[in-house]
Design a protein that fits this description.
Distance between the termini: 54 Å
Structural class: mainly alpha
Low-confidence stretches: 1-5
Strand content: under 5%
Number of helices: 15
Number of strands: 0
Oligomer: single chain
Helix content: over 70%
Length: 303
């Protein structure tokens, strides 16, 4: 009986919790460093991602015959500035840059604004038929844009907007993807108690949106604006139909008539134009990348 009483008893889980908690607190403040393999993989991923841009610069610095010859050139040539000058003067690249900047900026701002308002309504405002309307909005994403080209072009023709920038801007003022994206973000990020508290303090709808919804939705608005701006900058299908290279072209429409010669295409000049159209996007990411990432991380930390 004494031997039974002296037998050590296994520790209970409750007794182990403070130890694990102390261990967690001791390791929580440590800064973990990546190993050499991680840096090798990151360098390889960066090299693979940057290689197309590098080869674009290489191709823009050679002649068209050298670009299509085998093996392909891997080192820069001496014709970069000549090709840049020729591409800039063959089509009105300056006007195309201005037009594309205007179109992409207006589309991005309007899409972010209207998508945030609609996403807030679908996420936090109770009204009849909300689920059905949201389903219809999401269902429109399954319709190919080619199906709406003929009626859209007829409308643009009747309004006299052919070869005008508004024919490209107005059909893209809001996107179903943006509405769904903002709705999904606000469902989790915006507590309904916050909206009710603002209304109890006497805030009207516009003040609630400006002082409550927009600050909470700022990270998602930054991401959506970036995605829409890039998509509108690279859009080709509808601008190529609504605009002409000799009128008010965007960059992609201007590139369609670049490098054309006598029954042949100078691929070096075409890639030079593609390089010109890529540089502004790189500058936008270089100057606004920290702000975009900062907005994303600001909404990623929960108390």
């Amino acid at each position: 009986m004494a031997r039974t009483l002296d037998t050590p008893r296994p520790a209970s889980p409750a007794a182990e919790r403070p130890v694990s908690g102390r261990r967690f607190r001791q390791t929580a403040g440590r800064q973990h460093h990546a190993g050499p393999l991680t840096y090798v993989l990151l360098v390889l991923a960066a090299a693979v991602s940057l290689f197309p841009l590098y080869w674009n610069v290489v191709a823009a610095s050679h002649t068209g015959e050298r670009v299509v010859a085998a093996p392909a050139p891997l080192l820069p040539g001496s014709r970069l500035f000549d090709n840049l000058t020729f591409a800039w003067n063959q089509v009105d690249m300056g006007e195309a840059l201005v037009n594309t900047t205007i179109v992409a900026s207006l589309v991005a701002v309007s899409t972010v604004l209207f998508s945030t308002l609609a996403g807030f309504a679908f996420a936090k405002l109770p009204f009849r038929g909300r689920t059905m309307l949201l389903s219809l909005v999401v269902a429109t994403m399954t319709i190919p844009p080619q199906l709406s080209v003929i009626p859209l072009y007829q409308i643009v023709t009747d309004l006299g907007w052919v070869d005008q920038l508004q024919s490209v801007v107005l059909p893209s003022l809001v996107a179903a993807f943006g509405v769904f994206f903002m709705r999904q973000f606000l469902v989790e990020a915006l507590p309904v108690e916050l909206v009710e508290a603002a209304r109890m303090d006497g805030a009207h709808s516009l003040r609630v949106i400006w002082h409550v919804v927009f600050p909470v939705a700022r990270p998602a608005m930054a991401v959506l604006g970036m995605l829409v701006f890039v998509q509108s900058w690279n859009d080709f299908f509808w601008p190529f139909i609504a605009l002409t290279p000799d009128g008010n072209p965007t960059l992609q429409v201007a590139l369609a008539g670049l490098g054309a010669g006598n029954h042949s295409v100078d691929h070096a000049i075409v890639l030079t134009g593609a390089l010109i159209s890529t540089v502004p996007l790189l500058l936008v990411f270089a100057f606004l990348g920290k702000h975009i990432v900062g907005g994303i991380t600001a909404g990623a930390v929960k108390s």
